[in-house]
Amino acid sequence: MKNEKGLSKMATMQAIQLTGPCAAHEMKPTTVDVPALKPGYALIKVKAFGVNESEVTSRKGESSPDFKFPRILGIEGVGVVDQVNPGSAFKPGQQVATMMGGMGRAIDGSYAQYMLIKEKNLIPFESNLDWSIIGALPEMLQTAHGSISQGLHVQKGDILLVRGGSSTVGLMASVLAHHMGAEVIASTRNEAKLPKMKSLGIDHPILDDQDFTKRVQAIAPDKVDKSLELVGFSTLFEDMRLVKEGGFTCFTGALGGQWTLNNFSPFMIPTGVYLTSYAGEAKDLPAEYFSHILHLIEEKQLTVPIAKVYHGLAEVGQAQANLESGKFSGKHVVVL
Q1: Which domains does the chain have, with CATH numbers?
Q2: For the Enoyl reductase (ER) domain, which residue ranges apply (predicted)?
Q3: Res. 66: pLDDT tops 90
Q4: DSSP letter at 313?
Q5: Could you tell me which residues come within 8 angstroms of residue 247 by beta carbon, excluding any fewer than 6 positions away?
Q6: Residue 186 half-sphere exposure, CB side, CA atoms within 13 Å?
Q7: What is the reported pTM?
């Protein structure tokens, strides 16, 4: 029997559903039931999704307590509405994006042909861009935008330091800040990634080595206005010492793995420098802003940092393996 707005109620789909920790190459599509529509939710036909570090962590069974097996991974995705409840603000066929909200952790996520998402976590849009480009954006754009706007209040003319600049969020934040008129210094520990960073329009891609501080000081002898911390506590205080009095440092990520610090004292923060943080949700990426960014991409005013595009669920394992290797710059995107 078919629902009047979509699939058979007993339909099945292909998904990457993990029953326990596994290696990347062990991630194989399996047949599962299409999730049943619930009040307040919409069923979305997945068109593309980005692959994220947190999903690698979950696949290894090293995620936080809200994650449990069996689970369909995927903390973000884009697609079209397939089924809605009566009175919904959405319509079948409408393009939508989503991220976070427990996806791929507390609830099943986007590594599937269909995903069941709370309507409040859906971002509507209209675009003719390829799904591979749109699929790269939600989580990366939300985190980058939130960090430089809510966390740092970046403005035209600012000198912004992005520590961990070759990460997906680092690249996206750099691209956005540069477009806003900020001068961007972005670091990487992999010299081979510097040309890619330069090609995206980053003003000063620099190597993060023993001479890091000297490199920054040579570019900004009067210190930087803002710094975005994506490496973690291992570099946080070094970065804050490079920020002007009255400037901001925003702690958003910990690529180095150190999220906390024992025996922390407020006096470790340089006088007059403000320390903020950012950790956001779908609501932090307004539909108007998402559409604005899509338009800028369509007009070739912004370039999306994409490392590689994969086709079909069977290539998810390779996407995770490539992400884990650290050899690529940009987002890994799977298109269905």
Answers
A1: 12-137+285-335 (3.90.180.10), 152-277 (3.40.50.720)
A2: 20-334
A3: no
A4: G
A5: 223, 224, 225, 226, 227, 273, 274
A6: 32
A7: 0.91
